[in-house]
Amino acid sequence: MFESLSDRLGSVFDRLTKQGALSEADVIAALREVRTALLEADVSLPVARDFIKRVQDKATGSAVTKSITPGQMVVKIVHDELIRVLAGDEPADALKIDNPPAAILMVGLQGSGKTTTTAKLAKRLKDRNGKRVLLASLDTNRPAAMEQLAILAGQVGVDSLPIVKGETAVQIARRAKTQAAMGGYDVLFLDTAGRLHIDEVLMDEVQAVRDIAQPRETLLVVDGLTGQDAVNVAAEFDGKVGISGVVLTRMDGDGRGGAALSMRAVTGKPIRFVGLGEKMDALETFEAERVAGRILGMGDIVALVERAQETFEAEQAERMARRFSKGLFNMNDLKGQLEQMQKMGGMQGLMGMLPGMGKMAKQAEDAGFDDRMLRRQVALINSMTKKERANPDLLAASRKKRIAAGAGLEVSELNRLLKQHKQMAEMMKKMGKGGGMKQAIKQMM
Ligand code: GDP
Q1: Complex confidence, ipTM
Q2: Among 128, 204, 269, 358, which residue is least crowded by beta carbons within 10 Å?
Q3: CATH of domain 102-292
Q4: What EC number is given for this enzyme (predicted)?
């Protein structure tokens, strides 16, 4: 997600934050580069223009250029503006599924990932919220699509409405509603037929189904790789059938991410979830702060802890999250992290999420910072005593020599590990205090 945009902005802001004093002309020049980066990421022109204008208004006053760290002030203004453009004024809350059975209408073009997303959402509601979920496919034109939904339902362990040949979409919707009510289901997903393009027949059918189903949510699934097209499709669907939110799929690809940035501003509708792969758990809620942090390469502690939750024992993950939020991060924590790294998609995947390490990932790879290094670092920590691990400040020269020798390594390597630990602990502390990115940025200034 957003890799190239993130790289581009990263280099603009690197220069900006390294400069001590900033003139208005410096800021304007930097913002021109930001604008180009946004356009290259396929953000729509009016949105990019408005974005830059808002940032410029806030960033060119003397409060910024005369401040002690003007570069960081500008980054913060961009960060806040990213959140605004991603989230709008009110938060995208959780799916409305009170008053069971709550119907959720899934709409979108063929191939957008609608069926896959339906199954992913069903799995999420079942696993995380303990909901009983029923899936029904209304794609009467494509028997294969109906079967696919039934297969995916089986895979994620929820029920699907038995397929009856010859019914219309409206008839299926009626039967599904009755079945959901009688069967005591909490949530009913109606996976409507997709078409290759928006056409009247499709819209009429979706409207008729909507009137029968009275959905609590109408979620539009769009392919994030299609950039501005995705935004246009959303605007059209919203105009014709009314949507309550958007799911952007294929955000795992090297797409330029512009759809995510333009969606809210153009359609007024929130992005509720993003699809990050073909697997059934490759779905994340869309949180503006987190995404803004990612775009600016500030790491993503929330995703880190969430990913850990899937890998670790839940209890262990909770303990970790609690410790981090208190700013506690000792050698045992670091060791735990290093050992989990391999399980959690290797160095590259993980470093992008660790605060401050995103940009280092590439350099690190060149410097041979790979899985072998991970093992060496774990060996160093293993060679420390319990007390030393709990309190790395104890490590005077003699202890360092002993530890390095114990692991068969140089003291310089231990020093590098200690430095890394210190940086991470500091970042954790900032993330923990008062919660989140926004705060962390404030504290850096
Ligand atoms: P539908 O025609 O809209 O129902 O689309 P499908 O759900 O059948 O999805 C079409 C293809 O896209 C399938 O091969 C899915 O596995 C794939 N797909 C769906 N969502 C994602 C995603 O978030 N990332 C990736 N990489 N592939 C996805």
Answers
A1: 0.98
A2: 128
A3: 3.40.50.300
A4: 3.6.5.4
